[in-house]
Fold these 2 entries.
Entry 1:
Amino acid sequence: MTIGSETQLFNIKEYPCIRCDECALVCPVKLQPLQLHWYSQEFNEDRLDDYNLFACVECGNCSSVCPSHIPLVDEFKQAKSDILTKRSKRLKAEQNKQRYLKKQARIEQQKQDKIKKRATVVDKNADDDLAMKKKQDAIAAAVSRVKQKREQKQKQKES
Ligand code: SF4
Ligand code: SF4
């Protein structure tokens, strides 16, 4: 059990920080518990990062020497937990956003593919129509030529 927890358990009165800096002197990882205390209070995530909150090994030394009985280590644990929860929510939201964007892109791609496919079919139909028209024109021209020849022969016979 940490000293901070004992402070709460035995209902020891907490006083404001007097900036004595005793907490910093006993920190094994050379943190500045005083600063971490301020920024934990206002939950300033960036400043807590600046002051290396996550390097805190939660030894409780700072809480045990604090003449104001501030449950420092408990504050730091809570701040870490709150930050991790917040970051996890942010990560989840970002993942959901990315999933949504990917899905939208996939839907748009499928739409474009359909439009392209439809345009290809329309082009092919137009080509087929053109080929058919050319064939019909060629047949009509041939029929007309045969008819002309027949008429010429008929005229020659008559003259
Ligand atoms: S609880 Fe954290 S801040 Fe306090 S002395 Fe230990 S390592 Fe340093
Ligand atoms: S030991 Fe307590 S009173 Fe002294 S600076 Fe640290 S937090 Fe403030």
Entry 2:
Amino acid sequence: MRIVVLGVAAAARIALAASTLTTTFKAVIVTLSVGLFCMGSACAQSELPTTTRKVILEKSPGNGYRWKLVQTALPQVRDHQVLVRVHAVSLNHGDLEMLKRDDGRDLTGLIVASDAAGEVVALGKDAKGIRSGERITSLYFQDWVDGPASAEKLAGALGGPLDGVLGDYIVLDDTAIAPMPEGLSYEEGATLPTAALTAWMASIGQRAIGKGDTVVVQGTGGVSVFALQFAAIAGARVIVTSSSDDKLARALALGASAGINYKTLPAWSNRVLELSNGHGADLIVDVGGRNTLDQSVKSLAYGGTLSVVGGLSGYDGNIPALGLLLKTATARGIYVGSRADYLRMTAFVRTHRVRPVIDRVFPLERYGEALEHMASGAFVGKIVLRLAD
Ligand SMILES: NC(=O)c1ccc[n+]([C@@H]2O[C@H](COP(=O)([O-])OP(=O)(O)OC[C@H]3O[C@@H](n4cnc5c(N)ncnc54)[C@H](OP(=O)(O)O)[C@@H]3O)[C@@H](O)[C@H]2O)c1
């Protein structure tokens, strides 16, 4: 589909606008059924629908929220926005956390999910840096374009507090999208915005890691598998912790050097020290949170870095300050990343032909099953929804 949209208007406004245009210009204007108008020979190839499916939150009779699939009018594209036909959306652990959210705000009607891949089918008149028909992914933060984080840059996260991406057609600001790396399918592209960028920022995106370094990643979920792939490509020796020996075997096949079952070996830091000949981990990607921070700090090498990423066992765990101090180590909070970071990460993905690890793909109608699969923990890598081929 190749569409260049000049503006958005109701049918009456389009008629009025068209009547004031020159004859030459009118010749390439085609009115679409949704009231958008466009220019270009390919414009007539496909008309946009007037409605779209989307998945929104509604209050659950108990606590928290439940999701609901609804059909609504196609969203209007504002000047700096694009209309995206979504082909795939990936799930994140945060999607489960949103269903339990209770921070005083009413999330009723919010479109769920943060990570989409699709094609741009319409452009607002001031949308910059994007071509119609381009394959893109969404970005987690719509206003964090570059530079260090700030309250303003972190205020606009897709999927909460802003509308998310789980719909056939969505509108996104031109700052909330980036080109999808060539060579990836839409399903693969949809895994990148949150999990891959977080893994990048928690590993080689912010600290030079290479041959001779030891990296620990926890579990075999979305963020951790990307961190494993990135660190292994950089030449590091990667140790993976997991609840399951089968998953550890999978992690070894994906490039890990060693695995530790944290269920059978709760004091796994001793094993990290053994495996690294007493040196410890130069970098640890902590997604466990409350129950893992103590073991993480005990695993650190002198001068090591603890990337504080997740809260699978609860956020706000205690980081043993003395443990950091005695090893002159650094603890660093990670909150996804900026668009500029994303572009550096996708360049790495392209150069090193990183293939995202997808556990299962579900059709949109089976979103509930996909969430259950995520909650079960019986997966490695990412879970993806397919909305269109
Ligand atoms: N700060 C950020 O920017 C950011 C961004 C994305 C995600 N997150 C957070 O990071 C965490 C991971 O997210 P995700 O999307 O990668 O999750 P995920 O794909 O659902 O991965 C979960 C996996 O982690 C492992 N796990 C579960 N509980 C654990 C525990 N208590 N200790 C260690 N490992 C455990 C399990 O793998 P095994 O069975 O192999 O152990 C599980 O399958 C979540 O808390 C999420 O909210 C933070």
